[in-house]
């Protein structure tokens, strides 16, 4: 009798829960018909949407979206969902060009935007800036990477590359190096010299990577609270307003704030001038011989973003290229043959000679084709517009709708690349490049939001490669996982098992 009574008491609550659940499921299913109701081919998403495997770090976003695109290979665009949020995946090259270049004003923002003043570091990054602030922030960053400054930076790159080669030579024969650590020690060394005029000691034999490497590492290896903020920021941005945007820890901002203050005061006191970020900072914050504290935090944020541009992306790219050459020895020999032909053996590198290494540049581009730093470009529609496919279908994209460019998918499309799944640098030879739409290679993006540090980053990587490959043969280490695959657990580009490399000295 008691059991019957308890059941009768619970029955109304069970009915309420069942009704609410049914209503919630019905709403989700209705929301997930957004594209179907507009006549756009869409997926059949699970209750939690199409990107759940990426959120759970079981697959990369590029892999998930590539699978969807291949199921709908003949469609110029496909509708998908992040739970109930509609996203348009644009595949056709002409439409990609429309979004990134021709109709940029309608897609001026990236999907992730940080409000002005909301984050002490990334709030000053043009990548996260809304269109009204983006131009100003990009202009500041672009000045640091204009052609004249890139050329000035070459000597620091060459010096750092020599230090990298000495570090490798000073290790025990047969040592299996952590390739990512090695590459980022080099980019930390370059960045400290180029941006701040400081010797970082990150490439000294027998020493730890140094404070500049550690700061760069901390920016992208968040603690638990920062990881929570980052996940909320990516997947449910409205909640970020409540818990705060600050993804970069205060200790990192304090480091760069102190670095700028001390450097500016030292140069002012000693009469030192140098064409770098610190010189720019001195013009901004020195008032009557004293540092204006109200400008210091802003400059620290800008310094962090300049450092990120030169340290993280170039480090990952350099390590990736070395891995591709280690696992493709025939292509490595082709690079070495070009170096022997174009460079003067035993003499210091020269800027124009390194720039004039076409096959080495093909190797860098091919690495970024197979493993782009960002496997999906994510834009936000800022002004309602209609996208019309050359093949017929069109779609009205409403303001506030996310539009994804499936970079990994177009980079591996057999319609544009003869060996889409292989490391094949000849994809970027003049013969194979002829007639290929520009928008099917997006290693640095395209249009007004293209990476401002593209030329600097490419040169930095090429200088290191030219130096190392003249002196060493690069081999995969024993711990290297093959075949090479992206690691879905990594926030940024990394590979399953990491990057492990061995270096064998070449006969002189």
From TrEMBL:
Keyword Transmembrane carried by entry: yes
A GO-annotated cellular component: endoplasmic reticulum membrane
GO MF: heme binding; iron ion binding; monooxygenase activity; oxidoreductase activity, acting on paired donors, with incorporation or reduction of molecular oxygen
Membrane association type: Peripheral membrane protein
Binding positions for heme per the UniProt entry: 451
Localisation: Endoplasmic reticulum membrane; Microsome membrane
Main localization (coarse): endoplasmic reticulum
Transmembrane residue ranges: 6-28
Leader sequence segment: none
Pfam annotation, one family: p450
Cross-referenced InterPro entries: Cyt_P450, Cyt_P450_CS, Cyt_P450_E_grp-I, Cyt_P450_sf, Insect_CytP450_Detox
Cofactor: heme
Keywords annotated in UniProt: Endoplasmic reticulum, Heme, Iron, Membrane, Metal-binding, Microsome, Monooxygenase, Oxidoreductase, Transmembrane, Transmembrane helix
Family: Belongs to the cytochrome P450 family.
Protein name as annotated: Cytochrome P450 6k1 isoform X1
Species: Frankliniella occidentalis
